[in-house]
Design brief:
mainly alpha, disordered N terminus, 0% strand, 17 helices, 334 residues
Length: 334
């Protein structure tokens, strides 16, 4: 019996060694996978250390859709007021680098043209307004001219913008008010602008910020959508949104902030199909993953100059053209 036991011992020892080697090989094969997974995952600390400039690393990170989505979704959890301010301002800085040429997308050469164009932009695109106003301002270049115009003729010019009867009434009414109350000049104060027919706070801030250089936040549909997606506010009322967002930024940033957010909403962060996979601020966005995350598919969703197409202005600023932007075609162009 003893001799038999002696003979069997080496076999057990050999089997044990063989099992150990097999386990070691299996562990070695799994190790690289874990290591790679660790590299692709993004932690909160990584987000905090990411530089303000959107780098290739940030773009590559977007490709790791599940990792970025998980981290981005945790950004605002328990976020302090100070952290919110820092994140909001950083998003604005990064958008300023993406859209350094951002500008009002309505064609105008003076405050009167801008206030009229902004009123006409309700329920239509800036492009359609820009294609329509050349004929309007050619025939009625001053408030005096438009105030004394034949309503039917104005309606016919404004027909392409939609709601042309109501818009005709508004632009003729505000022109008459400018002539009677302000000597034919557009006032540069919020309190006076909002008294004009068809002019609300949004329109007033567009005029103040872009015609008079006075800071203002333009809360349009794009601005409302994005600031809620970014969890800067939970408000739905435009006036309350304006107040809460204004408190996150220096007053001097308000006008440019409006341009950055609106441009991002029109080009990348769309209402129905946001191009998440092509978004430069994806690691900072709590809503990452609501849209297309595949980089190649997301690129196809980009609009205007980001997608290689013309912009909305027939006569855009030179800085926009220098950046590769293309002017929009006039009304009726093929």
């Amino acid at each position: 019996m003893k001799s038999g036991a002696v003979k069997k011992a080496p076999a057990k020892k050999t089997a044990k060694k063989t099992a150990e080697k097999t386990a070691e090989k299996a562990a070695a094969k799994k190790a690289p996978a874990k290591k790679a997974a660790g590299k692709s995952a993004i932690s909160k600390k990584a987000i905090k250390k990411t530089p303000a400039v959107v780098t290739e690393a940030a773009s590559t990170a977007v490709k790791g859709a599940s990792a970025v989505k998980t981290v981005a979704a945790k950004v605002p959890a328990g976020e302090s007021r100070t952290a919110l301010v820092r994140r909001a301002r950083r998003i604005n800085r990064e958008l300023a680098e993406v859209f350094p040429y951002a500008h009002p997308e309505l064609d105008f050469t003076n405050p009167f043209q801008l206030v009229v164009a902004t009123v006409l932009s309700a329920q239509t695109t800036d492009l359609r307004v820009n294609q329509t106003t050349p004929a309007l301002f050619a025939k009625y270049p001053t408030p005096e001219d438009l105030a004394a115009a034949n309503p039917e003729e104005v309606e016919e010019i404004l027909r392409p913008t939609g709601f042309f009867r109501a818009k005709t009434k508004s632009v003729m009414g505000l022109s008459k008010a400018l002539v009677e109350n302000y000597g034919g000049e557009v006032p540069g104060r919020l309190e006076e602008l909002v008294k004009l027919p068809g002019v609300g706070r949004k329109t007033a801030f567009v005029v103040l910020g872009n015609a008079f250089g006075r800071p203002g936040i333009t809360v349009d549909t794009h601005f409302q959508r994005l600031v809620r997606r970014w969890q800067w506010t939970e408000q739905t009322d435009p006036d309350k949104i304006e107040a809460e967002i204004g408190a996150l930024f220096p007053k001097s940033d308000w006008t440019d902030l409006s341009h950055h957010v609106i441009w991002h909403g029109r080009r990348i962060c769309h209402a129905r199909k946001p191009a998440c996979g092509a978004c430069p601020i994806a690691p900072l966005c709590p809503a990452y993953g609501e849209g297309e995350t595949d980089p190649e598919k997301a690129k196809k969703l980009l609009k205007y100059e980001k997608g290689g197409f013309p912009g909305q202005r027939l006569n855009p600023p030179q800085s926009y053209l220098d950046a590769g932007g293309k002017p929009a075609p006039p009304l009726g162009a093929g």
